[in-house]
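Suppose a colleague, Dr. K., hands you the sequence of a protein chain of 210 amino acids and asks what its three-dimensional shape might be. Before reaching for any lab equipment, you can write down a predicted structure in token form. Begin with the sequence itself:
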Amino acid sequence: MALQPSLRFLQVAGESSSPHTLEASASALFLDYVCPFSAKIARSVEHHLKPMVGSGGKYDGKVRVIVRLHPQPWHGSSTYTHEAALAVGRVDPSAFWKYTLALFETQTDYFDRPASTMTPLQIREKLVELASHHISKSDVGKMVELLKLKSTPNGGIGVTDDLKYNIKYSRANSIHVSPTALWDGLVSGEVSSSFGEKEWAAFLEQKVIS
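The predicted structure, expressed as tokens, is then:
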């Protein structure tokens, strides 16, 4: 599936020229940074799937993995986490996946009860502090600028259009929950957050055309 140029960092594994595409909405995988099941599958992608489709893997050059950001409205602070990830991707594309994993490792900080005592500004400051461990000081400054509210009363921030793109993409594909996976553009219901190395290997064995 296509990616608009400003969001090329959403491809987190494999080559752009690969004939097959797995999307998840954060392989395409549709992911929500405040969803425990999204965190589970993201760790599986990192430890099991990426080695299979990356350099030297069995499916090197045959599969690319794209993350699609899918904030769900019942997670109140989810929008802020996704905005932060998009800002990191903008200032340092190479840090996007590292920051994604860091967000999942700290996601409980943004669950309903912990987040209920923080203002939106405090949540954004916390997200910037987390990013400071993964991007340079100068890029932290750029990230802060992207997360600042625009001068108009309801104009959003510097990555609002990128967030809208992700949400529109999810709606266009009738994505309801996270994680959801697309294989070559179609929903692949067999992909589960419980997938381990064995399950990914069996899935790819069935799906990839030699």
